[in-house]
Design a protein that fits this description.
This protein is of the alpha/beta class and 359 residues long. It is built from twelve helices and ten strands. 47% of the residues lie in helices and 11% in strands. The chain has two domains: 88 residues, Chorismate mutase (Chorismate Mutase Domain, subunit A); 247 residues, Aldolase class I (TIM Barrel). β3, α4 and β4 form a beta-alpha-beta unit. The chain starts with a helix and ends in a 6-residue tail after the last helix. 38% of the residues are buried. The strands form two sheets. Strands 3-4-5-6-7-8-9-10 form an eight-stranded parallel beta barrel, surrounded by six helices. A two-stranded antiparallel ribbon has the order 1-2. Bound molecules: prephenic acid. Prephenic acid (PRE) binds next to α1, α2 and α3. Pfam families: CM_2, DAHP_synth_1. It is an enzyme of class 2 (transferase).
């Protein structure tokens, strides 16, 4: 085939493509109108019977060269795209969605501490509240380092029922007292809806842990109170599931929700979980909520905390969470991965020196 002939045929194809595009776009406009009518009538968008009729009609007038099966496949694709268009247009925007609120949500904690604003937040503290002395030692060190918010687990959902389960309400009291003594704010995980109300006296932020991300009764209870909530991503939760879990809290009226990526379960064994850095910009794009990164639980190893914290901040995270214990070797939980106080100071200095931690 001469080049001139090939060019002529391709020119013709370009014309046909343009006609097809114009026709499928025109079809899409009609589909949109049908979508609006169906929405008003409250009938389902997907209509398999109608699709079957259209396919039969098309196949019966098909003169080739495409086989009937190919025609079916091509048109099914068009129907699916049409359905997607109808669904996207009538999808109710979530309260947590950027579509609902363009501006970033900035959460104001007591003492004027802002989460999601101009400054980055460093949350640090022991995995578990183990004793008054241990908690006070950490609180003193954190206050000295300039940290404002201390974490500490009192209710510990552990893999094994034989592992330390936390000090419960007593642990919350210890955390509050140590925090008050050193002018810190508190974050602690609550696992039972019935504990939310009593915990309000002790915590400045309610944490909902990874294992409870889809504990819907707990999410609803956290949505009923007016206290900021830090929601952790579930071990195997998709971002869509994570966002919907946050929606559970918001739909009950509590607008102060922060998200925290804490690593997801993959086949990789060299880290405890896989830190999903891509979750950070996606959550920032899809929602208006502050996003933090838990470097301790995601990696489970101390030697890569600094680069992972930097990666989180570079990806747009509003804050970092890290675990600190006065004597990690004797810790009742997460012994292998908590920083001692000296290591924490080094970690915090390195993160600040990177220039990525906004102060
Ligand atoms: O005819 C309809 O009811 C439509 O919504 C349009 C349309 C189509 O693309 O033809 C789209 C989705 C339905 O499953 C069936 C058909």
């Amino acid at each position: 085939m001469s080049n001139a002939e090939l060019d002529r045929l391709r020119d013709r194809l370009d014309e046909i493509n343009a006609e097809l595009l114009s026709l499928i776009s025109e079809r899409a406009e009609v589909v949109r109108e049908i979508g609006t009518v169906k929405e008003k009538q409250g009938v389902p968008k997907f209509d398999p019977e109608r699709e079957k009729q259209m396919l039969e009609k098309l196949v019966s007038s098909n003169k080739g060269p495409f086989t009937n099966s190919t025609i079916r496949t091509l048109f099914k694709q068009i129907f699916q795209a049409s359905l997607d268009l109808q669904s996207a247009e009538h999808k109710k925007s979530l309260l947590v969605s950027r579509k609902t609120r363009k501006e970033d949500t900035v959460i104001e904690l007591p003492q004027g501490v802002l989460v999601g604003g101009a400054a980055s937040l460093m949350v640090a503290g022991p995995c578990s509240v183990e004793s008054e002395e241990q908690t006070r030692t950490v609180a003193a060190a954190l206050a000295k380092a300039g940290i404002k918010v201390m974490r500490g687990g009192a209710f510990k959902p552990r893999t094994s029922p034989y592992d330390f389960q936390g000090l419960g309400m007593d642990g919350l009291r210890i955390l509050r007292e140590a925090a008050d003594e050193y002018g810190l704010l508190t974050i602690s995980e609550i696992v039972d809806p019935a504990h939310i109300e009593p915990a309000l006296d002790y915590v400045d932020v309610i944490q909902i842990g990874a294992r409870n991300m889809q504990n819907f009764e707990l999410l609803k209870a956290a949505g009923e109170v007016r206290k900021p909530v830090l929601l952790k991503r579930g071990l195997a939760a998709t971002l869509e599931e994570f966002i919907h879990a946050a929606e559970y809290i918001m739909s009950r009226g509590n607008t102060e929700v922060m998200l925290i990526e804490r690593g997801i379960r993959t086949y990789e064994k060299w880290t405890r979980n896989t830190l999903d850095i891509s979750a950070v910009p996606i959550l920032k794009q899809e929602t208006h909520l502050p996003v933090l990164v838990d470097v301790t639980h995601s990696t489970g190893r101390k030697d890569i905390l600094v680069p992972c914290a930097k990666a989180g901040l570079a990806a747009g995270a509003d804050g970092i969470m890290v675990e600190v214990h006065p004597d990690p070797a004797t810790a009742l939980s997460d012994a292998a991965q908590q920083l001692n106080i000296e290591e924490f100071n080094q970690f915090y200095n390195d993160v600040k020196a990177s220039g990525l931690f906004r102060q």
